[in-house]
């Protein structure tokens, strides 16, 4: 599957939408990794905001994976082993793309705050490990979800529209939760200490990974050609 992932990564620019897509991607990276840290400074560095940043693959990976799967649906192999490698290669490339994007944003944010505040913000290793785990699991979930939606959609445009609607629903839910009384939102508080945050991140990562595995299998099952049986 490694060769399939590498091959999909070589087609990344085309799946991002060519020059226009890459330009929009770079703009998003600069806004999230440079402008936001420069504007908010160390106020941006809180457990809740950092955890929110780890879910940014939900914005980056799905359009690319949907384009990759939906745009080449007619080219999927008939052999089950080759079809599995074809699909998992696309999901794997989407995971790497989303994860690297978040890592790049974090790196730029650290450099930006160093230049604006005059010092780095040093986090405990438990925090760093937790952020790495959650961002990787979020990338896996985003790529698997996009593959499952795209393989069953009538077109790539329909798959992207479905994911935009899902993202809008997620934003509405988050806004609703943020407006709830403190007694309720306190239950959703993110731990601030390193060891507790790592435990919290491990639980989230396991749940997201389980969902991602299920969605990847669903996508593979949907990619199987339909069999027509006649009872004569």
Walk me through what this model shows.
There is one protein chain. The protein is 78% helix and 0% strand. The chain has helices spanning 2-10, 12-15, 18-40, 47-53, 57-71, 80-117, 125-152, 156-178, 182-185, 194-223. Residues 228-232 have low confidence and may be disordered. The chain has one domain (2-223). The chain is mainly α. α5 packs parallel to α7 and α6 (80-117) runs antiparallel to α10 (194-223).
Task: Please summarize what this structure is.
Helix content is 78%, strand content 0%. The protein is mainly alpha-helical and 232 residues long.
Structural class: mainly alpha
Task: Report the β-strand fraction as a percent range.
Answer: under 5%
C-alpha geometry? globular
Q: How much helicity do the residues have?
A: over 70%
Number of helices: 10
Largest sheet at a glance? none
Q: Could you list the spans in which at least 5 consecutive residues all have pLDDT below 50?
A: 228-232
């Amino acid at each position: 599957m490694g060769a399939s992932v590498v091959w999909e990564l070589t087609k990344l620019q085309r799946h991002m939408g060519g020059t226009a897509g890459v330009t929009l991607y770079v703009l998003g990276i600069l806004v999230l990794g440079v402008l936001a840290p420069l504007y908010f400074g160390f106020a941006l560095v809180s457990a809740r905001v950092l955890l929110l940043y780890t879910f940014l693959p939900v914005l980056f990976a799905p359009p690319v994976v949907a384009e990759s799967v939906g745009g080449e649906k007619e080219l999927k192999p008939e052999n089950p082993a080759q079809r599995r490698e074809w699909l998992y290669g696309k999901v794997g490339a989407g995971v790497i793309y989303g994860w690297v994007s978040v890592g790049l944003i974090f790196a730029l944010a650290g450099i930006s705050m160093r230049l604006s505040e005059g010092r780095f913000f040093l986090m405990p290793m438990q925090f760093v490990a937790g952020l790495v785990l959650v961002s990787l699991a979020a990338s896996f979930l985003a790529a698997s979800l996009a593959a499952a939606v795209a393989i069953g959609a009538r077109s790539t445009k329909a798959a992207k529209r479905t994911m935009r609607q899902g993202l809008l629903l997620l934003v509405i839910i988050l806004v609703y939760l943020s407006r709830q009384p403190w007694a309720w939102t306190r239950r959703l508080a993110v731990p601030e200490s390193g060891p507790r945050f790592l435990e919290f991140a491990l639980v989230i990562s396991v749940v997201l990974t389980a969902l991602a595995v299920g969605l990847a299998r669903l996508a593979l099952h949907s990619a199987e050609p339909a069999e027509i049986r006649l009872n004569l």
